Amino acid sequence: MDTLRTFTTGSSTEGKFHSLPALADQGFPNLSRLPVSIRIVLESLLRNNDGLKVTERDIRNLAAYHAAAPGDYEIPFVVARIVLQDFTGVPLLVDLAAMRSAVDRMGRDAKMIEPLVPVDLVVDHSVQVDFAGTGAAFERNLDLEFHRNRERYEFLKWGEQAFDTFKVVPPGIGIVHQVNLEYLAKCVLEKDGVFYPDTLVGTDSHTTMINGLGVVGWGVGGIEAEAGMLGQPVTFLVPEVVGVYLTGALVTGVTATDLVLVVTELLRKTKVVGKFVEFYGPGARALSLPDRATIANMAPEYGATMGFFGIDEVTTSYLESTGRPPELCRTVENYYKAQDLWGIPTDRNALDFTQVVDLDLSTVKPGVAGPKRPQDRIDLDNLKVKWGELLAAPVKDGGFDKTGSKTAVVHVDSKDGVPDKIGHGSVLIAAITSCTNTSNPSVMLAAGLLAQKANAYGLTVKPSVKTSLGPGSRVVTDYLTKTGLQAELDKLGFQTVGYGCTTCIGNSGPLDSGIESVVKAEDIVAASVLSGNRNFEARVHQSIRANFLMSPPLVVAFAIAGTVDIDMATEPLGKTPKGDPVYLKDIWPTAEEITAAMVSSLRPEVFQALYTGFSDQNPKWNEIKSSTGDVYEWDRESTYIQEPPFFDGFSPCPRDIEEIHGARPLGIFGDSVTTDHISPAAAIKMDSPAGRYLRDKGVGFADFNSYGSRRGNDRVMTRGTFANVRIKNLMVPGVEGGVTKVGDNVEAIYDAAEIYKEDAIPTIIIGAEDYGMGSSRDWAAKGTNLLGVKAVITKSFERIHRSNLVGMGVLPCNFVDKDDYEKVKDLADATFDLVGIDNDLKPMQQATLRVHPARGRAFDIPVIVRIDTPVEKAYYRAGGILPYVLAQILEK
Questions:
Q1: Which tens digit of pLDDT belongs to each residue from 354-402?
Q2: pTM of the entire structure?
Q3: Where are the beta strands (DSSP E) in 597-704?
Q4: How many angstroms separate the Cα of 758 from the Cα of each of 202, 649, 763?
Q5: Domain annotation covers residue 232
Q6: Which of 88, 235, 557, 579 suits a disulfide with 203, CB 3.0-4.6 Å?
Q7: Where are any strands of DSSP class E within 772-890?
Q8: Are 497 and 335 in contact (CB under 8 A)?
């Protein structure tokens, strides 16, 4: 197809590009009505058409995209770059190192394993809030971070010198998505004189934050990202695209966080899982870039693949204000105008969407979400009533099965032994954290202004509340300091604890020991309040059972109140030293105050200064030594980095697809089992299989670190699979934690898996709705594979986890009739066969789950095998993406 054209770049030179308008002239007159996100993917197909990975048929399919009925063809999307965070990036690098070792053992050149697109890894998930509420918190946490993670950081430094296209942003700089938004993203890239859209995938669900900048990209598992790095397209079924038509404007007192919680609630009800979502309309056009990014960031919470905003003058203005070169900003505008992709449409019927959802921004009210899921939004003025209902409701209905109030006196070690009272609903963690909100100056400055007013009234935070501020980048500290608001936050205990994913990812650190012992002894349902995006069970802290998402200023307000059992509209947050009541309305900042603070503090030169010379600004990183060479020297005694077994017995020949017979269930689970449940990222319990392994290796409990930090060691991570302390295996009713039944015995799931493997008995997992929702956590699939699980059969999957299971050679299946789940959920003693599958398996083919109860006759249940595309079948037959890619590379 002849689509190569020229345009004028920002430096007034001629640049080449693959023109979508030129393609439209070649028989696709409706191209201009396609969703913008679809057209950007289409450009990638045009540019990467090589007749093999991408063909003319692929281009014609997508160019003729029919929104009402998109069809079922697959799209081979070649992305321009890849971003990683360290929790997921370290195991990815481990796999690449293992692949090099495998190639080296074959006597081949290890350098043939090399990323073919630029890869940026930002170290942001390793900092924990061990110290908080003091001016020394940042330095002390950073010291501990480097102590705990030195092996991992040495390994990352080896990777940076071993691979030509692999770069590391060291600790203490910021959260990957905010760094991507403020620094890495360019909107338009160039190679060999050809310009093209900046596109990416990232090994973190919230990669979608970059959609707010008009960049197409989303989160994938590390497994899929590795394939993309090594030249494989990111293959996905053609999506439905839901248009969200925004009108009106937010009223005074409503924040971007309030808006995104409404969007999350609305789109979860709309059922946008696996779909693209594209925001447009006059309301979308009027949103600031940080507000757009906040909404885009939460796409995983509303279930969409993306939450996309087009590129317009707001985009280029943001690029300029964050220190990008003026010629780049002009190139972006000229390029997108040449592609007929410039601007956000305001006409509701301007583009063809599968479905259009309307939202009037003026109807958004202040709210929070919780206590266990981000889509469970509660109006702020209804929280007290809802809390009472949740406290009394039975556990099976999402409640806590508690009646009446309970209080206990605790002595807080960290605050000079000050006595305090806690009870159901007491806030024990208040954290301004997470890329969702820390990237947005309006809500961060609002938090500082609210703190300023609270201090003026003499309000304080209760001694039992652990307060923390984890800015998404050093830019946040700069503007909070310049406005004098950091000092105001400091007075209330919100000192900076680190630059990275802290409480939101589960790195909340320990509670005061006296408080935690009382919480456990008295069975208190305590709360956390955080400006994050995830509040799944046991994610924030294992002892805190109610977790509420909210805007940064509300986090400060609830820290002062000390409880979620409060009506902020009618009850005071606290009292002045004279005893006068102070209400939320008394300290809430005005829109004018927030705007004035933003105008006075944000400067392009700050971004330019803080995003250069990373090594010079981080002496601790410079002190890290590492090995050198193309092949990693594995340390068999390391408890952080081990060569994984994914290439043991490697063969380039595909395996046969075979039926499964005589399988036992390793776990039977209910709805909303998350990847946090399957593969926790937080603390490792001393008496868990992973804890026992570390103790046997001579690691003291204080140095256990987290599961997330040990993802480079398959021995720890396999033992940690299904080890979340709040997971509920229906095979062991009434018990929480990673246990199962083997005969009449209750065993840890890892120990049970070892018993079954020793007896050569295959195992399966059975789940209900939304199995695998949450973070794009590759170890949730890797661990499932290494436990020996052959198939996972559920009512429904979250998109990334299903893909990851295939990518690890595990067969995902869905019940054809979801009611059939009820027939098997209580059959802990049954055995199962999966029949009707062989090498002729077709995508989405039906098979049969044959159930052999311990008592009674066998019966059959129809299931759909969720191998969705031909390339996924190839991955499955190879034993997963990694062996498949290695075979492809060796063949070349």
A1: 999 999 999 999 999 999 998 999 999 999 999 999 999 998 888 999 8
A2: 0.84
A3: 660-668
A4: 37, 18, 12
A5: yes
A6: 88
A7: 789-794, 811-815, 831-835, 846-852, 859-865
A8: no
